[in-house]
């Protein structure tokens, strides 16, 4: 299996249609086939409303063999007001069914390879959510299910719900993950950072989900000065780690980003990584392919 999943969150907003097509084509030529998107990408862009990434992928997909590509999309984290994450559209049965119809339309396909519950929805019983998602697998509309940003107690509760009711298990579990540890007061909104304990729990689940990490490169922060880390990661220990990684990468004549992705992959986490150009993507994958 290709060692990384291509992140497409910026396609159609920060990254133009033409640039997006170029990266998608190059990724496919390199042997990659797994695309990570969501129905709310990229609502945080000034001109974004959500759905832009899926729309670009759908347009690109028209000239490809659908079976050559694995589309992984997510629902349930669309901002209701379009600006904040204070209230999300959630995972009620009705919203799931409406969301999947919209995703299929934008992606111009009749099935989704992996459908994620993007963010936990405490206001909807897990049984209601998972019965509806399982029904999509039974119909063939979705090939498999995943979870993203569920904290540890809710993961274990969901596993019990699935086992007690004979529902479809989740095959992927996706979380925010990089080599740096965030500051204790860091606020990522609805995103859940995977720590060692959560990683251990996921590894020991009977359903054996693939553990996937998004934002592994923190938008290129490993390639800049250790004094310029994002606020959520700005501390002395992280600065020292970045400096050491940069020195190690230089000694091995590679990029620090490539070293980070290799380390994460060796640890047992599949990285979701993006790039604005195919040249940058190739640089990032130097140690993996």
Automatic annotation (TrEMBL):
User: Which Pfam families does this UniProt record tie to the protein?
Assistant: Aldo_ket_red
Domain named NADP-dependent oxidoreductase: which ranges? 3-287
Among Gene3D superfamilies, the record links this protein to:
NADP-dependent oxidoreductase domain (3.20.20.100)
Which InterPro entries does the record associate with it? AKR_Detox_Biosynth, Aldo/ket_reductase_CS, NAD(P)_OxRdtase_dom_sf, NADP_OxRdtase_dom
Enumerate the PROSITE patterns for this protein.
ALDOKETO_REDUCTASE_2 (PS00062)
Q: What is this protein called?
A: Aldo/keto reductase
| Organism name | Grimontia kaedaensis
């Amino acid at each position: 299996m290709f060692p990384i999943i291509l992140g497409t969150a910026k396609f159609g907003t920060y990254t133009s249609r033409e640039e997006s097509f170029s990266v998608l084509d190059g990724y496919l030529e390199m042997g990659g086939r797994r695309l990570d998107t969501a129905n709310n990408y990229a609502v945080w862009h000034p001109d974004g409303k959500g759905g832009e990434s899926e729309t670009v992928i759908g347009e690109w997909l028209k000239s490809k063999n659908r079976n050559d590509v694995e589309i992984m999309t997510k629902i349930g984290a669309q901002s209701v007001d379009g600006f904040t994450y204070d209230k999300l559209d959630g995972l009620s049965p009705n919203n799931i069914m409406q969301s999947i119809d919209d995703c299929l339309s934008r992606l111009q396909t009749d099935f989704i390879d992996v459908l994620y519950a993007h963010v936990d929805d405490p206001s909807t019983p897990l049984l209601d959510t998972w019965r509806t998602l399982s029904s999509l697998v039974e119909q063939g509309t979705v090939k498999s299910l995943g979870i993203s940003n569920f904290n540890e107690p809710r993961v274990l509760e969901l596993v019990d719900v699935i086992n007690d009711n004979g529902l479809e298990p989740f095959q992927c579990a996706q979380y925010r993950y990089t080599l740096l540890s965030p500051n204790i007061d860091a606020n990522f909104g609805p995103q859940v950072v995977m720590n060692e304990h959560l990683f251990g729990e996921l590894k020991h689940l009977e359903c054996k989900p693939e553990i996937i990490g998004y934002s592994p490169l923190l938008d290129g922060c490993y390639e800049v000065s250790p004094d310029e880390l994002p606020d959520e990661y700005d501390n002395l220990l992280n600065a020292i780690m970045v400096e050491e990684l940069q020195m190690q990468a230089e000694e091995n004549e590679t990029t620090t980003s490539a070293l980070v992705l290799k380390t994460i992959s060796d640890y047992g986490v599949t990285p979701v990584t993006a790039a604005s150009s195919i040249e940058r993507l190739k640089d990032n994958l130097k140690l993996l392919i």
